Amino acid sequence: MRPRAAAALAVLALAATAAPATPAAGAGTASGGARPYLYLEGPPGTVLEDTLTLTNAGHRPLTLPLRATAPWVTFAANPVTVPPRTRAEVPFSVTVPADAPLGDHTGALLAGKAVTVPVRVRVGGPRLAALTVEDVRVTAGAVRYALVNRGNTVLAPRLAVRAEGLFGEVLRRAERPLALRLRPGRRAELSEPWPDGQRPLLDRVTVRLSATAGGGARAEAATTRTFGAGGAAAGTGALLAAAVIRGLVRRRGRAARGADG
């Protein structure tokens, strides 16, 4: 700090009712007093409040810009001018979003260039793990769907896929983890491509998706699509013929087994 600036600046991160520590004369320091950092706690959707106390031990006024690396912080005033030999109390609030993940969120409050006060915000409350599978669509190239986190914890989803056609199973993928971390309230648009050479061409396919995540989250969804050339009517007629052929093959197989018996 230049000589013509204040002789000393002590910044105390204290609640409004706490007594500030005495700054060291002739030195610029930052101290949390009795607390090594600011700590605030509350459930999602609440507003938490505290006060940043700036003490100017010098002989000239100091104007300090404030900023925060801690989440969701809003200062009541910014910048702040601290008169000489006195202090300024700056209220600030932490607005916790309704979809904020539970747990600790850390950062700091900064006054000027040399003062840093650590902050920890703990978002508490009962944990709810909830997941939905939505908007399932079957195209010629892939199965498209969306995963939505309906709870208040971060989810690492797992997915299993199964597709059944008129002639049996078309696709089966065992449950596996997805390269995805889904925050509360977030939606992810995803797709499952058909394997090479296994894309349905003339079939009526029902696709079922099963998603799970930690905390007991589980969701399922299904949809059906008819694949056929020559338009919907022609495709439906071809599928009906295929179903009849399938039935005849099954009956002949049963008859042959009966004759053998």
Quick rundown:
With 261 residues, this protein is mainly β.
Description:
By secondary structure, the protein is mostly beta strands. It has 1 helix and 18 strands. A 5-stranded mixed β-sheet has the order 2-1-4-9-7, with no helix packed on it. A 4-stranded mixed β-sheet has the order 3-11-10-6, with no helix packed on it. Strand 17 and strand 18 form a beta hairpin. The radius of gyration is 32 Å and the shape is rod-shaped. The relative contact order is 0.12.
Q: Kindly report the average pLDDT value.
A: 78
Approximate shape: rod-shaped
Rg over alpha carbons: 32 Å
- Helix content estimate: 10-25%
Biggest sheet layout: 5 strands, mixed
**What is the succession of H and E elements?**
EEEEEEEEEEEEEEEEEEH
Strand order of the largest sheet: 2-1-4-9-7
Structural class: mainly beta
Spans where pLDDT lies below 50 across 5 or more residues: 1-34, 230-250
Tally of individual helices: 1
Strand tally: 18
The share of residues in extended strands comes to: over 45%
End-to-end distance: 102 Å
Please give the structural blueprint.
Layout: E1 9-12, E2 28-31, E3 38-42, E4 47-56, E5 62-64, E6 66-68, E7 73-75, E8 80-82, E9 86-95, E10 103-111, E11 115-123, E12 131-138, E13 142-149, E14 158-165, E15 168-177, E16 187-193, E17 203-213, E18 217-227, H1 231-260
Parallel strand pairs: 1-2, 3-11
Antiparallel strand pairs: 1-4, 4-9, 5-8, 6-10, 7-9, 10-11, 12-13, 13-16, 14-15, 14-17, 17-18
